[in-house]
Design a protein that fits this description.
alpha/beta; 249 residues
Length: 249
């Protein structure tokens, strides 16, 4: 099942390219989810995709992984540190540090539409409430998405006017992070009946028939994460990294 987009809403997001975690670089000199990466993307006019989650003291921060080690070298979960500690951690050995969501929004004037991924954690409702409150002050086009269908459903209930998307990947990828049955249900977008997304953002490659049916009925299909242009042939929006495509296609 899907929610219906107006033509005006479709036009905002359709056939646009979105810089994955900002316009970061493969050599990590411009790190993912950094203010520098977001400024680069905004300066070029790209749409932007980013990730939000909570610090221990309830600040909405922009960071992808549950744990800090891959990007900062620090051991532990993001939500086990207060923001005062997180903001001292450097991204990929650069001077860039973990930004607040509010800081990012102040630095992306001129960017295309924003895709905000809400990460799953132990305080999902709090993350949804605080993210929504921040987005209500943001005066550019945006949508939200999550791998967690119950986060998407939260926005269906509390902010139905906001464009929302269900993130998903194939079963083989999903089972690496979820138990077998849960992975099967999530990879097949089983919970669309409760989330009622406007779009599905599916990992580039084979996808189940339910995704094709969703697209044929008028729902948007975003692809992630592109490293070259070939997937533009079937996706309605593209989340990309490590190359610089046209703003729209």
């Amino acid at each position: 099942m899907m929610a219906v987009l107006t033509q005006q809403q479709k036009d905002i997001f359709y056939h646009r390219n979105y810089a994955h975690r900002g316009l970061h670089t493969k050599d990590r000199t411009v790190p993912e989810n950094s203010l520098a990466a977001f400024r680069r993307a905004a300066e070029k006019g790209y749409g932007i995709e980013l990730d939000v989650q909570l610090s221990r003291d309830g600040q909405v921060v922009v960071f992808h992984d549950d744990t800090l080690d891959r990007v900062t070298g620090v051991v532990g979960r993001v939500d086990s540190y207060d923001y005062e500690d997180l903001k001292k951690m450097h991204l990929c050995g650069t001077k860039e540090t973990i930004p607040l969501f509010t800081e990012v929004l102040k630095n992306i004037k001129g960017a295309g539409p924003l895709i905000v991924e809400l990460k799953t954690g132990p305080r999902n409702n709090e993350l949804c409430e605080k993210t929504l409150a921040i987005l209500k002050t943001f005066h550019q086009d945006f949508c939200i998405e999550s791998f967690n269908p119950f986060i998407v459903a939260w926005f269906r209930k509390h902010a139905p006017e906001i464009v929302r998307g269900q993130l998903a990947s194939g079963y083989d990828a999903m089972k690496k992070v979820q138990p077998g049955l849960v992975a099967r249900l999530l990879s097949s977008c089983f919970f669309n009946f409760t989330a009622r997304p406007h779009f599905i953002a599916y990992q580039i490659g084979p996808h189940p028939a339910v995704v094709d049916r969703f697209q044929k009925k008028g729902g948007l299909l975003f692809g992630w994460t592109a490293h070259e242009r070939s997937a533009e042939s079937y996706c309605d929006g593209m989340i990309f990294e490590f190359y610089e495509p046209e703003l729209k296609y």
